[in-house]
Amino acid sequence: MASVKYEHVTKRWGSVVGVNDLSIDIADKEFIVYVGPSGCGKSTALRLLAGLESITEGKIYIDDRVVNDVKPKDRDIAMVFQSYALYPHMSVYENMAFGLRQRKTSKSEIDRRVREAANILGIEQLLDRKPGQLSGGQRQRVAIGRAIVREPNVFLMDEPLSNLDAKLRVQARAEISKLHQRLETTFIYVTHDQVEAMTMGTRIMVIKNGIRQQIDTPQNLYEYPVNLFVAGFIGSPAMNFMDAKLVERGDKVAVDCRDFILDVPEGKAAVYRRHLGEDVILGIRPEDTHDAEYCPAGINKSLVEVRVDVTELLGREVVVHLTSENIEFQGIFDPRTKARVGNTMAVAFNMDSTHIFDKQTELAIR
Amino acid sequence: MTTDRIKMILAGLPTHIVLIGLCLIWLIPTIGLFVTSLRPFQDINQSGWWTALAPRKAVGQDVYEKYLAPYYGLDGKAVEGVDLFDPELIGQFRRSIELTVFLREQMEEGKVQLEEMPDPQEMSDLLTYLRQLSGAENAASRLRFTLNNYIDAVMGYRGRANYTTACAEGEQALDLNCNISDLMNPRGMGRAFINSLLVAIPCTILPILFAAFAGYAFSWLHFPGRMGLFALLVGLQIVPLQMTLIPISRAYAQLGLNGTFLGIWLFHTGFGLPYAIYLMRNFIGSLPREIFESAYLDGMSHWTVFYKLALPLSVPALASLAIFQFLWIWNDLLVALVFLGGQRPVLTYQIGNMVSSLGAGWHLLTAAAFVSMALPMIVFFSLQRFFVRGMLAGAVKG
After folding, report:
1. What is the ipTM metric for this complex?
2. What is the torsion angle, in degrees rounded to the nearest 10, for the CA atoms of residue A98, residue A103, residue A108 and residue A109?
């Protein structure tokens, strides 16, 4: 149970920068997710907190205590690794008890904690097996169990679900969320999968090239991405981006995407009016791109004629790849849609949910 | 059988023939040596091992009938005062050349007239025949296979006959006591076996011990000059062993280590370490680092991590190192010769001493070879599953 703070933390190996001027404030009992593409520095940020890497510049606080020079074992943290890192020659019980034995915990206390953790995770019957005799999901639970028995202040998890198959992953996600509610401890979770991030985190930090892009609740990241990268990273399928220009059409503001011009609703017009004539990038999510026939009522929409390239039937919805003359984008259509490959059809954009980004800075214009 | 199957068999035939051929080339001499080691030395000197199971042919009978029967008769008693089949007479002739001398004397005394003397091989056969008929040596009752060679080799018997017969007749050498204490005879293999063990076992354990520590240190401890030191150590493998014999021998002379076990332990450990450290460092470095990181996070010191994690996971590499080192030291002659010498002979040294400079007594070598081979074979076969795994060390995650 502790708060964590990164204060202008930088990590350099020679000329390679892992983490660049990172500042984060994590409250006690939060479940915060570091998310980003491969090699962005999220694991490095985690390992700096764990003490497995030394900090080049800046300070890290755990509970208002500077821990830059504190040894990993004294930071009162527990870590679950991507590859589980179980000790292969020891039984599951031994794996979980090993750390406690080193700290000279009493035998009865060790036994209590191990059995309790095994109970929470549902692995009581596996206590005598060796890791080699377990399935992937079971090993992952043993790894988590090893962290639980430590009763740390902060849980660190480095992509623990990436080695599981898809179905197991969905299950494990829910279990970890429940675990967080039950243990009421700060969780710091690293993943490259934005679905995991969105479903599990109370707050998410998006990081790219070692630089923090945005740190916010999942909903805010989704609705108000602060730059092009975050907008394109959160949400699957990814947001559609089109090069455009802000123009005036009559007395309204419109977005000229060369193939078509879309009217901007009144609510946003005021902001965009200040950037008339500028080159921008228009962002519209596929879920806001509807089949004109099956469009939800009551939205500000703009209709566009496009051709259908590919349809992906998912049962619950249809993902359609569309083209106008120069632009390709995707839409998520009602399953009743009559879109067929090669057809031309009308598509409705929900203009209430569009995003405009400055072409140079890639920042959102709000 | 379909044509396809026949084609498959024919296609594989050249490979199989070559493989079988190679196996035979290796196996046949070894089998021959083994069979030879089990035959009595009289048989070894007369015929090859491949005749071991064939009926013994009557040697020398034709020579006798050709040269001597006209004078001595078929019963050997035709000449006055000489009984060629008298065991006491024939027993005096230890070598066939002595028979030649005897016959020449007989000729001078006018008892026989030989136009030509038998050639050396024929003379040897003749003596064998006379021995057999005189009963000085009963070939018919001689067993085809015997353990006498092994007994002679182990007890350090260097005489003409066997240890067992010599002891039975009370004619053993001065250093033999004809009881169980002969196993420790300094000229035998029993003492040499113990000495070999005394050299091999510490020289296997010590380098592996140090190498395991060093391997862990080079992988997981961060100290300045780590890489340079490692490169230097590995580079030391280039130094040829022979080049260091003289300088180290001189150093040992000053330290009083020549001829002691401590000296040879230090030498073998020193020479085994570069390769051992290289192997152990690579193996320990290939263990998944998250296991160690997890252990450090749990608060374990380097010593605990080494003892409880690194060592148990390194067993394949340790075992294969042990086998290599043990076999190399067991079969080593040069280092033992230089640093231990004849005072504390090892097996290899003792085997070298088994034959005289002219090569007599080589039947003992056959037995000695297998005695010295026995232990390494046991070690290898009992540990070979580790050996195979050790070769793949690092390819599979622990």
Report:
1. 0.75
2. -100
